[in-house]
Amino acid sequence: MLGPLCVAAAGFSLDIDHDPNTTLTQPSLPNLWDILGNAVCRTRRDPQRRIAIDDSKKLKGARTAKMHPLTHLERGVLSFAAVRKELPKTDSSLFKQLGADVQQQPWYDNELSLPISQDAGLLKISGGKLNRALESAGVDYLGTVCEIIDAASFNKQVERTGRKSSVNLSAAMRLVDRIWRTWDAAHIVLDRQGGKMRYRADLQQCWPEAQVTVCDESPKCSSYQLCRGQHQLWLSFQVSAEDQHLPVALASMTAKYTRELLMERLNGYFGQHLPDLRPTAGYVQDARRYLQDIDPIIQERHIDRSQLVRSC
Fold first, then answer.
1. Does residue 77 contact residue 254 with C-beta atoms inside 8 Å?
2. Is the pTM of this model over 0.90?
3. By the 8 A CB rule, do 102 and 278 touch?
4. Do β-strands 185-191 and 211-217 pair in parallel, antiparallel, or remain unpaired?
5. pLDDT value at position 66?
6. Phi then psi for 285, rounded to 5 degrees?
7. What is the 3-state secondary structure (H, E, C) of 201-228?
8. Helices 151-161 and 165-182 meet at what angle, rounded to 10?
9. In 3D, which of 276, 272, 302, 257 has the Cα closest to residue 57?
10. pLDDT (tens digit, 9 = 90+) per residue, 49-102?
């Protein structure tokens, strides 16, 4: 209800055996948790202090816990951000690295210093360890991108299409297009979009010049091959994809971390006007409480609610 919708994609390049003249019924992709096992794991507690990469819902902690709720999300996202690059010192520099544009709203103006839950020196060590694991395995980390859709843009898209689900799918397809324009051939795995099983019509609408072949449409996976001249793309929409593929999990973490940083900005903006204001994560039930609490500021500053609150 409050805060942006964030959609991300993470890319890796590595050699896999595949005949380009065949279609794929079920994706046969390598397990990057195993390949990069010297540096990454899937658990919060690891004796080797490897970097936890998993579904963001499993890694974000509770605000009531002793540990900062963003500890594991931040370590994973910033460790990858530090691979062969400088560790971002502010959330603005991270957003720039992700190609994520933040809309100009007063509640998003207060830049945050990074990291907020980690030691910068230890993050650089984690990034170096991750870099060595990638080089040893012959894996090239291509980077992560993220799209930020604030409440105003979200509401406009819902008004135009009449469906909230289309906003998320459209953002995902824009990221897919960015990847396909960069690489002649790619295999992209996406999380299943709200229980939807058939995507051929959506894909054909996005790329009318492409030949779209349905490889599989089953309860657990819907996969497609797209051909545009010599350019080929394989898309798989999978149930709980972040549990099966490290790149999807990293994308999930990045989107969640980006949203949490922007919620920190939002809470900071309203909190400076109302010192006793209890922060919100922005989800419906607590967001209603928060909106009641900040109503004096909304009235005083003539804030347009359609710029702040997502349509539900």
1. yes
2. yes
3. no
4. unpaired
5. 74
6. -60, -50
7. HHHHHHCCCCEEEEEEECCCEEEEEEEE
8. 100
9. 257
10. 999 999 998 988 776 667 888 999 999 999 999 997 889 999 999 999 999 999
